[in-house]
Specification:
Length: 364
C-alpha cells in the first residue's frame, strides 16, 4: 500500500483537476456547507442544487432560518423528502441563535451538540470551514476506503465503521483536511460508484486492493436490510365548489410518522390490501367522516405506489363532492380554499394528485 501522504497527494491532485463546480464550493461559509450537506443527504446533486438555491434564497443565514416558521421551511423543502431534515434545520438554527449567539460552532465536538448534526455533517463542516483534521465519512467515503484497503467487514456494522474510521484518520491530509474530505466524496460520487465504477480513471487504481483482487463488485459489503413494510392509505378528497370558491378538507400530520408537519387529506390506513368497495361501504368510514353521507363520490384513483425508506405506500384517492362544507369536529381536519392548499407544505404524492385534480375536476 502507498504511504498515507501519497494517497492524499494523488487524490488531491485528481480533485484539483476534476472537481465539479458547485455553488457551495465557492465559499467556506459554515452555514452554506451545513445546508448543502443536509440537502444532499439521500439526494442526487442535480436535484439537490435546485433546492439548495431555493433554500438559500429564502433563508440566506442562520438568523433568517431561525425566525421563520416551521411551515415556511417545510414548504421550501416540499418534494425533497426526508422532512425531518428540514424540521431539524429549523430547530438547530434556533438553537444556534440561543446558545451560540448566532454563530456556527467551529469544532467537531460542539457541532455534534446541535440538533440534527451527526458525526459526518459535523466533520464536513469543521474540516471544510475550519480546517479541523477529521475525516468526514459518508457512504461515498466508506466505499472508497473499503475498496482501496480491501475491507470486507460490512460497512453498516459498528466493527466495519471502526475499521474505516481508523483507516481514514491514518490517510487524511493534515494540511488540507477540507479538500481531502471533499475529494473523497467526489471520487465516490464520480468514479468509485456503487455500480460500474470507472476504475481506469481512478487516481488510486495502482494500489486499490479490491481492484487487484477482482473484488470491486463485492466491496463494500453490507448486512441485509430490513424488510420493506407495505402500507395502504385511502385518501378521501372532500371538496366543494360552493359560491364559486373551491374548498377542500385537509389534514395536518402531527404524529411521529412519515411527513410529520405536512398536510394531506383525511385518510384511513391499513396494513394489508383492501377491497376499495368494502372501504367505501365500511362503518369506520361513516364513523370517521360522518359527512360522507352528504357527499357524492366522483372518482376513484389508484393505487399509486410511493416508495420511502423501508416503506412502500399504496395510495388511493377517493374524490367526493359536497354541496357545502360541513361542520367538522376533528381539530386536525381543516377547511382551506384551493389557493390556500397550494401554499401549504405537501407530501410529493399529494402535490402530484392536486395538479391532476385541478386539471380534471376544477378546470372543467
Amino acid at each position: 500500500m502507498k504511504k498515507p501522504f501519497h494517497f492524499a497527494e494523488s487524490l488531491l491532485n485528481w480533485y484539483k483537476n476534476n472537481a465539479r463546480t458547485l455553488p457551495f464550493r465557492n465559499e467556506v461559509s459554515p452555514y452554506a456547507i451545513w445546508i448543502s450537506e443536509v440537502i444532499l443527504q439521500q439526494t442526487r446533486v442535480n436535484q439537490g442544487l435546485e433546492y439548495y438555491r431555493r433554500f438559500m434564497a429564502s433563508f440566506p443565514n442562520i438568523k433568517s432560518l431561525a425566525e421563520s416558521t416551521e411551515e415556511e421551511v417545510l414548504k421550501i423543502w416540499q418534494g425533497l423528502g426526508y422532512y425531518s431534515r428540514a424540521r431539524n434545520l429549523h430547530e438547530a438554527a434556533q438553537q444556534i441563535m440561543s446558545l451560540y449567539h448566532g454563530q456556527m460552532p467551529s469544532s467537531y465536538q460542539e457541532l455534534k451538540k446541535i440538533k440534527g448534526i451527526g458525526p459526518y455533517t459535523a466533520a464536513a463542516i469543521s474540516s471544510i470551514a475550519f480546517q479541523e483534521v477529521i475525516p468526514a465519512i459518508d457512504g461515498n467515503a466508506k466505499r472508497v476506503f473499503s475498496r482501496f484497503l480491501g475491507i470486507n467487514t460490512p460497512v453498516n456494522t459498528s466493527s466495519g465503521s471502526v475499521l474505516i474510521e481508523k483507516a481514514a484518520f491514518s490517510i487524511i491530509d493534515p494540511f488540507q483536511p477540507g479538500n481531502f474530505n471533499q475529494a473523497v466524496m467526489e471520487l465516490g460520487a464520480m468514479i468509485c460508484t456503487p455500480k460500474r465504477p470507472s476504475c481506469t480513471n481512478c487516481p488510486l487504481l495502482s494500489e486499490c486492493i479490491a481492484y487487484k483482487e477482482n473484488q470491486i463488485e463485492y466491496i463494500p459489503s453490507k448486512v441485509k436490510k430490513r424488510v420493506v413494510k407495505e402500507r395502504y392509505i385511502f385518501y378521501f378528497v372532500f371538496y366543494s365548489k360552493a359560491e364559486d370558491m373551491v374548498q377542500l378538507i385537509m389534514h395536518q400530520r402531527t404524529r411521529n410518522d412519515i411527513w410529520k408537519g405536512l398536510y394531506d387529506f383525511p385518510s384511513l390506513e391499513f396494513n394489508e390490501a383492501m377491497n376499495v368497495q368494502k372501504v367505501i361501504e365500511s362503518e369506520i368510514l361513516k364513523q370517521q367522516f360522518p359527512y360522507v353521507k352528504f357527499a357524492e363520490l366522483q372518482s376513484i384513483n389508484g393505487p399509486s405506489k410511493h416508495i420511502l425508506t423501508h416503506r412502500m405506500l399504496w395510495l388511493y384517492f377517493l374524490v367526493y363532492e359536497l354541496s357545502v362544507m360541513p361542520h367538522i369536529e376533528n381539530k386536525n381536519h381543516i377547511i382551506y380554499t384551493l389557493h390556500e392548499v397550494l401554499g401549504l407544505p405537501l407530501p410529493r404524492p399529494i402535490e402530484i394528485f392536486l395538479k391532476e385534480f385541478i386539471g380534471k375536476t376544477i378546470l372543467v
